[in-house]
Design a protein that fits this description.
CATH superfamily of the largest domain: MFS general substrate transporter like domains
Strand order of the largest sheet: 1-2
Helix content: over 70%
Oligomer: single chain
Structural class: mainly alpha
Strand content: under 5%
CATH topology of the largest domain: Growth Hormone, Chain: A
Shape: globular
Largest sheet: 2 strands, antiparallel
Distance between the termini: 26 Å
Number of strands: 2
CATH architecture of the largest domain: Up-down Bundle
Number of helices: 18
Number of domains: 2
CATH class of the largest domain: Mainly Alpha
Amino acid sequence: MPAPSRLRTVLSESVGGLPRQFWWLWAATLVNRLGGFVVTYLALYLTVGRGYPASYAGLVAGLFGAGSAIASLLGGVLADRLGRRPTLMAAQLSTAVSTAALGFADGPVAIAVVAFLVGLASNAARPAISAIIADLVPAPDRVRAYSLNYWAINIGFGVSAAVAGLIAAHGYLPLFLLDALTTLICAVMVFVRIPETRPERSAAAVREEPRTGLGTVFRDGRFMALVGVNLLLALVAQQGSTTLAIDMGEAGISTSGYGLVIGLNGLLIVVLQLPMGRLMEGRNRTALLVVSALLTGWGFGLTALAGSSAAFFAVTVAVWTIGEIMAAPTMMGLVAELSPAGARGRYQGVHSLSWSLASFLGPLAGGYLLQHAGSAVVWLACGVCGTVAAGAFLLVGRRAAADAGSGARVAGADAADGEVAAAPGGGVAVPS
């Protein structure tokens, strides 16, 4: 087959067959991330632009994370009760207003309060977006859809990080205003093109179904086990933007060198997400999660051997980035399938909570270990965490297969759609 024809075939298999509304949501996500300047440069704005100490910047980052954690649960509940579309629009409009206000906020108390509100507003959209994808996309295509959405996020992040540096050279206020503007554009796109996707249920069905609140989600043992494993891996992943930078600096590698090395993460995701997403379709899900956990954990673990070699640091980033590419869409697809149709927002919110907690706890844990035990202990601990996570995924997959074999409800099945996610051979498989 000629190369152009082969390329068209690959693209068709990677992006074809998904609903039009999904692509509008994808485009809205890309626009929003292209203008995602503030979070990336908030610490520099506070320390360099406003002259606050690093401890205050850490406090503001913690408050932003606290708002994000609360929003994970609140956004999930609202997505189920009010609907995906109104929750997403309210979150985006609130994010636009609070982001612009943060650019004008003056004084440590005002800045801290508004930063908390920005975290609260911005993260409330995540459960709604994940639930919309689960509502719109048939089960066999969900991992591919989440891969594409993750691809859009990383394209936007890569471009915005590069552009923001050029804009910030002329002042920080334009970053806040442009971020608010792109979020507002995203809200308009949702209003015009994204319908409400929450599954409609008859009054009789609502009466007959057991009520699913947050307590029900937290009592779902298998789902919470997966959330716990995801939290463990997220704590490891957080070291890439915090502890890694400090360790590379102590090894004598310049700031620009760190930028080039960590930039490889975004570049590889943009280049590899689509072909790897295609390769992952139909694969045993447990195997994917086990391999991704090992790659993530020991990708960071190899950093203990990097010394002062920027090239070796780059190799480690490449290893854990491949683990990240495998894990993110696979886990999102699994969460969607474990969620009852009427409670997808709550389930996605609790899953998102694990990332919010990791963004707060990860830097604290990594910094403490780095200071008191040394860098080798930090990176070896990451490898151990990855191994523990891989073992946990394997146990959950075997339990799902055992339940399926005994006639119990299969983990990963959505009763409303009749989806089955248990694979022969002892794993939770991607539906095919």
